[in-house]
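Pilot study result, target chain (189 residues):
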Amino acid sequence: MLKVLEAEAKESADKTIAEAQAQADETLVEAKKSGEKQAQKSLDKANQRIKLERAKALSNANFEVKKEVLKAQEEVIEQLFTTIKEEAKRDFGSDYELFKSLASEALRKFDGQEVKVLVNAKSKDLAERVMSELGENYKVEAGLNGVGGLKVSSADSRVTVDNTIESRLSKVRQLFEHEIIENLFGDEK
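Predicted structure:
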């Protein structure tokens, strides 16, 4: 009877061990599957981060390239206007018709009031001649730095019209810079 009990106990223990082993194997398989899923999720997240970082780096590189292109275009435009300004400086000093046109345009604001006319030293004699011909109440002063043209102010200096070559070039640049860029560089800007 002891042997039978022993055999039954052994059989029961073996069965419990087998069930425990089967449950452990099943748990191990599930853990392996869960680990693989977790590993795949981690891998997917890492790949997504890599794609985002690559896109960000590419975007930053494109931005830097565009910034450099715009900087180069701006330098070309600046050189163009510097060249125009230098040519104007060389040609402007004695251009009677141009000076008279600039003066007439500036004087329209003052409607016969007494004005101060500021010019560069090179244009003072020309300004005196033009202003006397225009019959205005004026005082010409040499003291303007720049290529040429004039600044006309009311006697109390409350109103000033800047009709210098530099101001005119600045206006042209503001009005036509986009068109100049398109003509020089295409639709890059």
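One observation from the pilot: The longest strand covers residues 149-154. A full batch analysis is planned for the follow-on phase.
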